[in-house]
Each structure stands twice: as structure tokens, then as C-alpha cells.
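Input/output pair, single chain:
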Amino acid sequence: MKHQLDFEKPITELQKKLDDLRAHPEKHSLGISFEEEIQIIEKKLEETRRQVFLNLTPWQRVQLARHQRRPYTMDYLQHTFTDFQELHGDRLFAEDRAMVCGFAKLGEHRVLVIGTQKGRDTKENILRNFGSAHPEGYRKALRLMRLANKFGLPIITLIDTAGAYPGVAAEERHIAEAIAVNLREMTLLEVPIIATVIGEGGSGGALGIGVADRVLILENAYYSVISPEGCAAILWKDRSNAAKAAAALRITAKDLLELKLVDEIVPEPLGGAHTDPAAIAATLRTHLLKHLEEVMTLPVADRLKMRYAKFRAHGHFTEREDAVGEMKSAKKTKAAAAVAA
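Output:
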């Protein structure tokens, strides 16, 4: 199997055995019939597949989110949406191929679609900058979001990026400012906004098109302030602890739903979105339409208040009673020392 992940090996071995038996039926066991042996292997294959994919660790889900055969934004534009017309350029500096933008139809609704796009080979990855947008990508997205707002068209964003481009060129053209302006302006747009994390949701690069009335996430996608490797390099000084970091960060769809950072999980076919692109495209269309039609019924003023409150509520924290007591005691001691001095 091309692009096989380590935890997929038991499935691959059984599938190979099944394919080999079908190609060479004379190799089957003499004790049972050919059809019975096929059924036994098929049953074992299905059980193994379910056992593996229903008990994935956070790190294994990260690996699935990065799978090279996983559907990207352009794939969903072909199968989830219709009549897509791409628009280019930020009218300030250049065209950014890592950020795909254009008008399309979702069901009967005319919408603006914005998404980050990766490449499948070296040539395309260079063209798409590995899915990491420059400042001009975010400024292009904002230009078209303002256009959609002017004509009353809902906005759909598809997030799949390890993060915004961190290079010198991006810093020179003010990548942080471009993302910050998007965050501010997306809270003020009057049209409905639905965001979906379809693969990787990395840091500000994802959030730059992620401020929305509803935030959805595919079952095996992840959304995080930092990559597991980056977190491991900071906390443990060793990127090999990425699996430990992925668990500690709580970046999986299930964790994010429990933390109220996303609104719904979009289920994937067993084995990941790449195993049945047509099915996940249809499922995503159903979920997008449901949320879009719900949000469209809300008055504009109420929608804006709810969107603002939604993101203001992120980042809860608690204080331990003993820690609070220690802090107060320390403050009193310092105050007494200051009076004595």
C-alpha cells in the first residue's frame, strides 16, 4: 500500500494475503473450501480494521490528518461544491497559491469558499508552498471576504495547514499583522461564516481564516496552537516526544468538542477520509448545509454577538485553592516587609 502508516501494517498484510489468494486460488488450504477461506480472511480483515481505527491515539490521528492521499481543498471544491470560479491576487503584492479562493455553489446557495491547499508531489508542494500561506494569501482572503460581505454571500473556509509561512519574506511583509487584521475583520462581517478543519489546523495560520459562526472538524483532523513536534522540542527538547505532546495538547476532534472549541465533528469513513473521498465529500456537504441554513436564520445583530462571544469564551482556566492561598500569603509578607522598611 502506497503511503502506508505504521499502524496500518496489520491491515495491509491481511489485504495482501486476500489479494494473493484471489489471484492464486490453488494456494488455499485443503481443509476448507476456497470460498470459506476467503470469508475467514475478509472477516478478520474487517475486525482488524475496526480494532485499529476505532482505537487511534492522538498521534496516530495527527498522522492520518497528514496522510498524503487525504482529500485537500481542491478535492472538496470538485465534489462538495459546484460551479467553482477561482479568483486571484491580493491587489497589493502577489498571488498566493497556498490560499485558494473563489465563488461556488453549495446546494442552492451561492457562497465564497476559501481554503488552504497542499501539494501531492514536490513540484506541486513548491507551487503551493506546502500549504503555508504568505501574508498576501491572508490579504487575498480578506479582500474576497469583504466582497462577499458586500453582496451578502455566506463564507465557507476549509482549513488544512501546518501554519502560516514562517520565513523571512513573510516577516518582511508583516504576516502577524495580516493574520491579526483577518481576526478582527472576520468578527465584523455580517454574512454567515462556516469554518471546517479538514486536515491540519496549525496555529495562527489556521485561525487567520477560522473565525466563524460555526467551526466544524473532520474526525481525524486536528486543531492546535502548535504542532506536536514543535511542542515536544520546547517542553522535552526532543522532537521524538511528539506522540507524548499530541496527547498532552488535547488536539483531537473529540477533545476539541469537549473543550467547546469546535461545534461538531464530521465523521469520516473507517480508515480515514482518503479511503473514500466521495463519501466524505458528500458527508461534508450535508453538515455544511445544515449549519449554514441554521446560521442564516439568525438576525445579523444576534449572529455577530454570538460569534464574538464564542471566541471570547475560549481559554478557560481554574485556580487551585491552595495556590491562591499561597499567593495571598506571599503578598501579605511582601506588604509587611515593605511597611517595616
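The chain has a mean pLDDT of 89. The longest strand covers residues 193-202.
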